[in-house]
Structure formats: C-alpha cells, structure tokens
Fold:
Amino acid sequence: MKPHLIILGAPGSGKGTQAAKLISKGFKHVSTGDLLRSEIAKNSELGQKVSGIISRGDLVDDKTVMALLKANCDVDKVSYIFDGFPRNVYQAEMLEAELLKDKKTLAVYFNIDLSILVNRVVNRRTCGTCGEIYNLATKAPRVLDTCDKCGTVGSLKQRKDDTEEVVSNRLKIFKETVEPMLSFYKSRRELVEIDASMPEEVVFDALEKVIS
Ligand SMILES: [Zn+2]
Structure:
C-alpha cells in the first residue's frame, strides 16, 4: 500500500494540480469541506451537530473535523491525500495520534522560490466566459487576449488580488504557518521536499519516485 500524503505548498506552487494527478494513481483526495457537506446531507448524528455549528456561524472545531475524518476514512485500505488539513502542528499531531497512527505517512512539501511564485501569479489570466486559466509567461493564448478554448475576444482577466503586493503578503503568512509543520514532519522523518519550480511533468515524476 502507498503511503498517506500530507500535501504542503504555497498557493500557486501547483500542489493542487499534482494532487489531482495522484488520484489516477489510486489515491483518494480528502477535502474536509466536502466531508462536512456530505455528512450534513446524510443527516447523521455528526452531520446534525456540524449543521448546528455552521448555522450558528461558528467554525467547525478540530475535534469535530477529526471525528468526521475518522468516520469517513478507511486508512487501512485506501491511501489518502490530505490537502488543506492539517493546517497547523496541533492538527498535525491530532491527525497522527487519532487517525494515521502507525500508518506510513509522508508530508510532501512543494518547495518553490518566492520570485517564481510571484511571477506565476501576476501573469495569471482567467477567461471570464469559460473559466480557462492562462499564464502569459508559460501558457499564453495563441491570439492576444483571446481565449483558445471558447474563442471569446477580450475575455482574459486578471484577478484583482493577483498583484505582487497581495501575493507577497499571502506568501509571508503561508511561510509562517508552514515552517513549524515542516519541522514537525522532519523530526518524524516523514518530510520530503520536491522542487516545484520545475515543469509540471517533471514535478510529477519526482513525486511518483518519492511515493513508490
Ligand atoms: Zn474562454
């Protein structure tokens, strides 16, 4: 059985794309948001509790999220990808202690240089008509300001928070939260780092090597 993976990486590091690729390799993606919604839909006892918390406008606490994970993840049979949870060392410890225990687990950190990330984000354009995503530096449309996919002229827009200032600030906050987590997994000898500045396919090859 392949290890369970904790995916760590800055916004824009490409970790989401890589995680999606792993699903074709038999991994199952865990989204706590999806789990919350489906548990509410099931109207289970836990679902009713969650529904109550959310309708009061409160945040779902870590213990409830853990209960949700325990009720929905069969860690003996399926290899999971955790992305977006755990978010801090406290949650990481809880996940290890209550769910993953002695199961083989790897934290994969998609490491990427700050300047590359800023460059990626400020060059990002999204088609306002069909949602196709472009990058002026690496995946430009064939015709200037025209969507390849749906053909709309003048539809490629920059998100207003995709500016250098916003990105730098987002990354600063990310670094502050991820560093203690990297230390946590490193001390457990469960940390692997992948150079996320490489092209998508190269990153995926490295990822496959690490998890096999
Ligand atoms: Zn389009």
